[in-house]
Design a protein that fits this description.
Blueprint: E1 23-28, E2 39-42, E3 49-54, E4 61-68, H1 69-76, E5 85-90, E6 95-99, H2 102-108, E7 111-117, E8 123-124, E9 149-151, E10 176-182, H3 184-189, H4 197-210, E11 215-216, E12 219-220, H5 239-247, H6 253-256, H7 268-283
Parallel strand pairs: 1-10
Antiparallel strand pairs: 1-2, 3-4, 4-7, 5-6, 5-10, 7-8, 7-9, 11-12
Helix pairs in contact: 4-7, 5-7
């Protein structure tokens, strides 16, 4: 039955490798079977600064010690002009793309904190867990941190487009483990498995709502279910069932492992298109990455 969730899919996909204790890994996405060659940007090579910033995860202002994302990218010296997008990888399996033009980096103003001032005013190299409010309509995983914490001062992300939902990926990320440099157009083409307008509309919905937490065929994020492996989602959840899962929080959500933040502005037309794309991508291999 479409509303039943296979037990295997209740398991969270494996997390990304732990962040290097002494820095952040930066690498270029390899082409044609080549191996990635990560560069470790050591914390000791960076001039850390103190910054007071709003933190969208906890609300209000806090004082942090760390370094901007832009500074880490500059220190890596890996990027070529064709690589205009960074895929931020997190310990919990989330993957968040960031355009690398100067205007967007300034708009996002992302900061990688190594310490935060505690209630006594002293810098502490640990970060409190983020435990979301629990209610009959909302149940989310606690966010825990390791050697760093990505601080976003604003819920804005360019991929969210015109959605009115309160969802933002920055509210759910944890420790930054790595930065993958890609050509944005070539990276997006890997998921463009059909030129059918309806399927393309569904791909747009995936990019706007799903890509931060979910992957496809083992590619992309692994915080939530893979849409194809081990079982294609479209085979056990029809479009109407998928809409209710995306739009509303179920009273029994926690018991069933349904911990996705609801997106109440989702429409049935949008989700039907998403379902069509999920069906198409389950029947076709991803395209190769060809920048």
């Amino acid at each position: 039955m479409a509303h039943l969730v296979p037990a295997l899919l209740l398991l969270v996909a494996a997390s990304a490798p732990p962040a290097p204790a002494d820095g952040i890994a930066v690498w270029r996405r390899p082409v044609a079977g080549a191996k990635a060659a990560p560069v470790i940007v050591a914390w000791s090579s960076l001039k850390l600064e103190e910054r007071t910033s709003v933190d969208v995860q906890l609300g209000g202002e806090r004082s942090f010690r760390g370094v901007s994302l832009k500074t880490i990218l500059g220190a890596a010296a890996q990027r070529t002009p064709a690589e205009d997008t960074a895929l931020l990888h997190f310990k919990n399996g989330m993957q968040v793309p960031v355009p690398l033009d100067d205007a967007m980096l300034a708009r996002l103003d992302l900061f990688v904190a190594r310490a935060v001032k505690d209630s006594t005013g002293k810098l502490a190299e640990r970060f409190d867990n983020v435990v979301h409010e629990r209610s009959p309509w909302m149940e989310q995983r606690a966010i825990t941190f390791g050697t760093n914490k990505l601080v976003a001062k604003d819920p804005f992300h360019p991929a969210l487009g015109a959605t009115t939902t309160k969802f933002t990926p920055w509210a759910h990320v944890d420790t930054l483990t790595g930065i993958e440099l890609v050509n944005g157009a070539a990276w997006r083409r890997t998921l463009r498995i059909s030129e059918d307008p309806r399927v393309l509309q569904g791909l747009g919905a995936f990019e706007q709502r799903c890509q931060f937490c979910h992957g496809v065929r083992g590619a992309g994020a692994s915080f939530g279910w893979d849409f194809v492996k081990p079982i294609p989602v479209h085979t056990w959840r029809d479009a109407e069932s998928l809409l209710y899962h995306v739009k509303f929080r179920k009273l029994t959500g926690a018991e069933q492992g349904l911990l996705m933040p609801p997106q109440p502005d989702a429409t049935i037309d949008e989700v039907r298109a998403l379902w069509d794309w999920m069906k198409a991508v389950s029947a076709n291999e991803l395209r190769p990455y060809l920048p």
